[in-house]
Amino acid sequence: MGSAAENSTSDPQISAVIFDLDGTLLNTEDVTKNVLKNFLAKYGRVQDSDKEKKRLGMTFKESSLTIVNDYDLPLTTEEYVKEILPMYQGTWLLAKPLPGANRLMRHLHKHGVPFGLASNSLRKNIEGKISHHDGWKDNFNVILGSDEVESGKPAPDLFLEAAKRMDMDPSCCLVIEDSVVGVKAGKAANMKVVAVPSLENESDSYSIADSILHSLLEFQPEHWGLPEFDDWVDNALPTEPILLTGVLSNGLFQAHSDNGLSDLPSQIWGLYIGWAKLDGQVLKAVISISWKHGCCGPKRTIQPCLLDGDHVASHDNEIQLLLVGYLRRSCSLGSMLNSPEIIDEDKVTADAALELPEFSHKLFEC
């Protein structure tokens, strides 16, 4: 993982951006993760993680056929789709934009940079997913589903058609994707590709991408010849507040359950600033968030550094963390699996930023 490599002066100027949807702009994967599991249980089947990895990035049609065959369901593909689609549709309204998604789209729109949406989902399903997000449908210059081209990803058809409809040369387009099949499709279309994989997808699989980021918060438009962001407050970026509740034990935050981290997408990584409510006090904090691989799979590590007190927890203390900002230094840190170290520079930046109204702890006061 790393921040974007600067676009070579010999490369064509990037003039348009094409996004994937699920897992790139919208966190549909977290809200739909139990739909198939519950569906299969009705037929006495148990979801298999290896089979699920195989389906990552498939078109809806390909995925449906694969599920029916892999789990030997007593259904035709058409019957499966008719039964499961309403279950998925019921969760789409719960899907939130991923970190940095709205910020980047607003920035491109403000500066007149055309951007499109090219997804392996069916067009009608795309409409259902984005319809309640303000400005999304209107601001895309083009929206394409896999049923509107001959072949979905990893074929380049979706991206080539999106470029054609925006009247752009493919070499002048930048693709932003979360899946390996999407990255392959972007490169097959002769486009530059930024990968923003979730943790479950090993970053080594994305080596053909031109850049690999932890989240869209790391995206630096100027590295691709696009207008620079102007919303940094010194070296901190105001973000949508995220409230976490759990315990502080031996210096690490532990959620009471997996549901306690439901608002924290897997792409959240790096150094954040915010507030900690502990022992009746509201304290400034820098929070290091990373992932570690263990024998039972990847595990999130959340380490808050409290700035206003001598709170070193020797036992489990109830704590609430309110993340309100992102430190610019995160954009140049290393691997997803390395814990970002909090240094004095981060504490100084956080201490000053948290005095500003942009980084308020008013959510604690509700």
Walk me through the structure.
The protein has 366 residues and is an alpha/beta fold. It has eleven helices and twelve strands. The protein has helices spanning 28-32, 35-42, 49-55, 60-70, 77-92, 101-110, 123-130, 136-139, 157-165, 180-188, 344-353, and strands at 16-19, 115-118, 142-144, 173-177, 192-195, 211-212, 236-249, 252-255, 270-278, 281-294, 297-306, 317-327. The strands form two sheets. It has a six-stranded parallel β-sheet, with helices on both faces. A hairpin with a 2-residue loop joins strand 7 (236-249) and strand 8 (252-255). The protein is globular and about 60 Å long. InterPro entries: HAD-like_sf, HAD-SF_hydro_IA, HAD_2, HAD_sf, PGP-like_dom2, Riboflavin_kinase_dom_sf. It holds the Pfam family HAD_2. GO terms for molecular function: nucleotide binding; transferase activity. Keywords: Flavoprotein, FMN, Nucleotide-binding, Transferase. This is Bifunctional riboflavin kinase/FMN phosphatase-like isoform X2.
Number of helices: 11
What fraction of residues sit in β-strands? 15-25%
Main beta-sheet strand count, sense and barrel state: 6 strands, parallel
The ordered string of helix (H) and strand (E) elements is EHHHHHHEHHEHEHEEEEEEEEH
* Global Rg: 21 Å
**Which residue ranges are poorly predicted, with pLDDT under 50 across at least 5 consecutive positions?**
none
Let me know the number of strands: 12
Which descriptor suits the 3D outline? globular
Helical residue percent? Answer: 25-40%
Indicate the structural class. alpha/beta
| Strand line-up across the major sheet | 3-2-1-4-5-6
Distance between the termini: 38 Å
**Roughly what is the average pLDDT, rounded to an integer?**
88
Pfam family, one: HAD_2
GO molecular function: nucleotide binding; transferase activity
Keywords: Flavoprotein, FMN, Nucleotide-binding, Transferase
Protein name: Bifunctional riboflavin kinase/FMN phosphatase-like isoform X2
